[in-house]
UniProtKB/TrEMBL annotation:
Pfam families: ABC_tran (PF00005). GO terms for molecular function: ATP binding; ATP hydrolysis activity; branched-chain amino acid transmembrane transporter activity. InterPro entries: AAA+_ATPase (IPR003593), ABC_transporter-like_ATP-bd (IPR003439), ABC_transporter-like_CS (IPR017871), BCAA_Transport_ATP-bd_LivF (IPR052156), P-loop_NTPase (IPR027417). Residues 39-270 form the ABC transporter domain. Keywords: Amino-acid transport, ATP-binding, Nucleotide-binding, Transport. It comes from Williamsia limnetica. Belongs to the ABC transporter superfamily. This is Amino acid/amide ABC transporter ATP-binding protein 2 (HAAT family). GO terms for biological process: L-amino acid transport. It comes from the Bacteria. SMART domains: AAA (SM00382).
Length: 278
């Protein structure tokens, strides 16, 4: 690839020097940038039914400390990518690695012990259990650390401590989302995978969720965020990927994607002209 000499720059610096066109068009660039990534997927193909691939040769990486957003149309494969990274769907072709360790198709419970947390879009709390019991379920592998982690999670979500004896089934959608994120944080993950955390929430609660994600990230947790609310997602993420029909369509910084006329036209639709919240 022609262009600036990137041999002495950090991955973060190199990200900023490249346009989405360069990144999307050249898998070599992805590989070069992803060398020291915290989590990366190389050319992964995956699907649910035999012979039907949902993801086709997808490339993805997350650097330490980043929030990376994944946006795209309905059915593009965003949730499937997250599930594949978390070992819920086997990888058919390609590889996934965590801090350089090959974790391709490693099972979810193994990934949790390696510092990967996952919050599914639905059915992400135990409604019959109290908030406290839900959080206990999150750390059942290390029960002695409950108090320490409960304190950490309560600082991010004070409501969870205040209402610890309330059953999760009695909470609003936004409050349940906090329980789900809190539970995933109990195991002290270094990477948190969030599947459409703002889905179905009122605009006020959506804002609250995005603010909390930034706070979680500020504690040192790297975040992969799948979102329908693409514009809001791009506002808070360091980098974003656009998936379309199971393939990488574009990737760039969140800011560049949000302001790219092509992305606006194809993926952000009428939201593009709406007032933005910073
Ligand atoms: N359990 C499943 N079994 C078979 N096919 C599935 C399953 N879950 C999802 N799919 C299919 O995989 C494709 C990608 O779905 P996925 O949920 O990953 O898309 P998405 O980009 O997250 O979209 P959305 O924003 O609508 O959730 C769709 O065609 C969907 O019908």
């Amino acid at each position: 690839m022609s262009g600036p000499d990137m041999s002495k720059s950090t991955p973060a610096q190199r990200n900023k020097q490249l346009t989405h066109a360069e990144l999307a068009a050249t898998p070599e660039v992805h590989r070069e940038q992803a060398v020291n990534a915290l989590l990366r997927a190389d050319d992964i193909t995956a699907g649910y039914l035999p012979g039907i691939n949902i993801l086709e040769e997808c490339n993805f990486y997350l650097d330490d400390g980043e929030i990376v957003g994944i946006i795209g149309p309905n059915g593009a494969g965003k949730s499937t990518l997250l599930k594949t990274l978390f070992g819920l769907i086997p990888v058919r072709v390609g590889a996934v690695s965590l801090r350089g360790e090959n974790i391709t198709s490693a099972k979810a419970h193994v990934l949790v012990t390696k510092g990967v947390g996952y919050v599914p879009q639905t059915l992400n709390v135990f409604p019959a259990l109290t908030i406290e019991e839900n959080l206990e379920m999150g750390i059942y592998l290390r029960p002695k650390k409950f108090n320490e982690r409960f304190e950490f999670v309560s600082e991010l979500f004070p409501l969870l401590a205040e209402r610890r004896k309330v059953k999760a089934g009695a909470l609003s959608g936004g409050e349940r989302q906090m329980v789900a994120m809190g539970r995933a944080l109990m195991m002290e993950p270094s990477v948190l995978l969030l599947d459409e955390p703002s889905a179905g929430l009122s605009p006020m609660f959506q804002d609250e969720v995005f603010i909390r994600i930034k706070k979680i990230n500020a504690t040192g947790v790297s975040v992969i965020l799948v979102e329908q609310n693409a514009r809001r997602c791009l506002q808070i993420c360091d980098r974003g990927y656009v998936l379309d029909q199971g393939r990488n369509a574009y990737t760039d910084t969140g800011l560049n994607l949000a302001n790219d006329p092509k992305i606006i036209e194809l993926y952000l639709g009428t939201l593009a002209g709406s007032s933005e919240k910073k």
